[in-house]
Amino acid sequence: MGNSGAAGAPVSDPGVQTAVGAARHLVSQRLMDSLLHDVRNPLNALSINLDVLTEKVRRELGEIPASQEKNFKVMREQIFRVDAILKQFAEFLAARPDAPGVPADLSDLVRQVLVVLGHECRRQMIKVRQMVEPDLKVGAPASTLKFLVLQAIFRGVVRAGPEGELDVILQRDGARATLWVKDGAPEGVEPFENARAALTALSAEIGAELRIGGAEVQMVFPILLPQR
Question: Is residue 1, in this structure, part of any structural domain at all?
Answer without folding.
Answer: no
